[in-house]
Each structure stands twice: as C-alpha cells, then as structure tokens.
Amino acid sequence: MTERRTLPGFASRPADPERWVKAPDKPAAASLFTARLTIDVTPALRARLKVAAFQRGMTVADMLRALLAREFPDNPGDMP
User: Fold this and answer.
1) In angstroms, rounded to a whole number, what is the distance separating the alpha carbons of residues 61 and 80?
2) Alpha carbon distance 64, 2 (integer Å)
3) C-alpha separations of 80 from 49, 74, 77 in Å
4) d(CA 72, CA 78)
5) Helix (H, G, I), strand (E, B) or coil at 8
6) Between residues 24 and 77, which one has the greater pLDDT?
7) What's the CA gap between 75 and 80, in Å, rounded?
8) How far apart, in Å, do the first and last CA atoms of the chain sit?
9) Is 2 exposed, middle or buried (0-12, 13-18, 19+ CB in 10 A)?
10) CA pair distance 17, 14, nearest whole angstrom
11) Residues 42-63: pLDDT tens digits?
C-alpha cells in the first residue's frame, strides 16, 4: 500500500529554548517613558502627523515628545 509521509509541524521549535523564551533587553531610552498618553485625532490629522514625521526622518511618537517638551519645558518648581 501507500506509505504515509510525516510532514513537519506548523512551526519548528528553536534549537535553544532558553534563548527563545527570554525577552530581549529593553533599550535604555524605553525605561525613561513610564506613562502612555492617548489622544483622539481625526484620520486626516493622523495622516498629516505620519507624513510630517516621515519627512523629518523620525517616528510620530518622537516628534510629539519633542513638541510637548518644547511647548511645556521643565520648571524647577513643578512636581516631578
């Protein structure tokens, strides 16, 4: 009769499971940002933000962080 062929699984397991399970180290800059700010914008504004960030060679998040830092500079008397 016909011999049944064994096919490999959907995904193969990594050779080193410990390395596979461990999460990569976060970059140092990621630990600086401990809060997330969510805003609602129109799709048109979102598109303009993405185009402006792309033209400046940066991400939207980095561009908005710079904008907020410029508009709201640190004041020595403010709470941390």
Assistant:
1) 21
2) 64
3) 29, 9, 9
4) 11
5) coil
6) 77
7) 10
8) 77
9) exposed
10) 6
11) 999 999 999 999 999 999 999 9
Report the run of H or E that residue 45 belongs to, with start and end: helix 43-55
Is the Cβ–Cβ distance between 46 and 38 less than 8 Å?
no
What SS3 state is found at 32? helix
Please give the torsion angle defined by the CA atoms of residues 14, 17, 19 and 25, in that order, rounded to the nearest 10 degrees. 110
Kindly state the tokens that stand for 11.
């995904």
Residue with tokens 């809060």: 35
pLDDT value for 70: 93
Q: Is the dihedral of CA 66, 60, 37, 35 positive or negative?
A: negative
Radius of gyration of the chain (CA): 23
